[in-house]
Amino acid sequence: MERNELLRRINTFPLAANELARDLLAGDFRSVFRGEGIEFDEVRLYEQGDDVRSIDRNVSARYGKPYVKLYREERELTVCIVMDCSASMFVGTAAAQLTRFEQAVLVSALVGFSAERSGQRFGGILFDNETRIIFKPRKSRAHIMSFISTALQAKPAARGTNLSLAIAGAGRLLKRRSIVVLVSDFLSVGWEAELGKLSEKHDCIACRIYDPMDLDFPDVGLVSIEDPETGQRISVDPGSASFRAAWLEGNAERAAFWSSACRRAGSAQIELSTAEDAVSVLKTFFNSRRR
Prior knowledge:
By secondary structure, the chain is an alpha/beta fold. It is built from 9 helices and 12 strands. The longest helix is centred in the C-terminal third of the chain and has 25 residues, at about 240-265.
């Protein structure tokens, strides 16, 4: 898709984000994800009926009277996008009109505008085989547009994908409980343990972008295909029954492994085809989480 057309679609997202933001946060400041963010506010003298578990022993000992800790609901969260810009993301088919990368940009923009609409900070990480650019969390439409603009200019600097390194980087970047959306084709290895660590402290959503060709390779006669991650090239006959069976089985196994790994790590999952409407898929996902 031409960049101008992509930007035109992105410019409509602030309107779509209004509805998504209502599902991103249930109520005024309550996350639809597990738990509620709370932070320490102040201490006061103990009153009858207070929970004894909230007594601050250090302050009580200092003043000789029982004091309890008061907490307030954390009214700001951080929404962080970890976006894959590796070579395999730039592969697409004419039928889908979008590459995996372009679909990932649309997802990131929609989540970013929804974060803005609900008053949350937005941060992001762009990566391929290394962590390339980090956007520290902050509030502003300009910050989100800067992330989108930078993402649109991204090109894979080298072959390979280091998703594990990017996930670990998100863990170091985010000091408070956050919503982390990983947008990738997940054609990487060794990321499962880092996702598990990140999910212990944050609410993680793994969004796997795939192409319809993964499910149905078109019969176009003998062709030469190249693995964008390794550079290996082979000639195949898509009309061959054995090739089609192996192609479908391989992609099904990768999808099943991704789903199982996310479940074990405690991460939510979204599967999004490059032929689908990102707005509709994300609305359905967040609405189901709110319910």
